[in-house]
Amino acid sequence: MKRAVTYNTPDRPDFVRQQYAFAAHIRDPEKNPHPQAVEARRMKLYCELFYNNVEDIIANTFPVLRKILPDNHWHALIRDYFAHHVSRTPLFPEIPREFLKYLESERKNSADDPPFLFELAHYEWVELALAIFDESLIEAEADAAGDLLDGIPAVSPLAWLLCYSFPVHRITADFQPDRAGALKTNLIIYRDREFDVQFIEINKITARLLHLIGENKIKSGLMLLHQVAAEMNHPQPETVIQGGIQILNDLRKLGVVYRLP
Fold first, then answer.
1. Which of 137, 77, 71, 63 is nearest to 107 (CA)?
2. What is the pTM of this model?
3. Over the stretch 70-92, which tens digit does the pLDDT of each residue have?
4. Distance in angstroms (rounded) separating the CA atoms of residues 110 and 73
5. How far apart are the first and last CA of the chain?
6. What are phi and psi for residue 39, nearest 5 degrees?
7. Contact 153, 224 (CB under 8 A)
């Protein structure tokens, strides 16, 4: 359902119009005058308090992005988000997700923005998202040691397959690629048994296998490995299958895959 847009029209009660003016000035004090009913000094404190809280949450969630952007670029980015994005939730843990939505759908292209801006932000947000993801592993652990070749393998709900055009996991202040790589960067993010979030880089064959497992409900692990070998048109399919068996065993040790009970 599309959310209704409301406006600060003259027919509204005075206290409502004051609230609109108060919020508008806090969002963008340079374009909206402060409410006359509020002392300028106090209004300045409100502006700083609201902005600093939001900026602090975003900076802590996206530490690499914060580090590589110059201060003026960073604060211009956050100020634009703060002034223009209409949040769909009042929950503080959801602010980073709202910021990600802004980058994906609302951010106007800026020549100063790095080309990997959204992908890096997504990569950093995923760590928070999985850390607070409320999902049970009881079903997964029911047959964690089952035969993955004869049985039907499944991907843990606490393991996510990610694919990026940039090597986002290697971006630092000293390494900032100016164009996408020739090959996609495939990553698995998973929450281990100690509730720590881990990342591992995988090749496209492993990524394809995990993708097939995620969509599969009826094929055994061995059947899926044969499918991967066939898709590759490999001259020695048994080599692919043996390598795939090792991959499945390694991923099971990490808790990324398990056998359906």
1. 77
2. 0.86
3. 999 999 999 999 998 988 888 88
4. 10
5. 39
6. -60, 140
7. yes
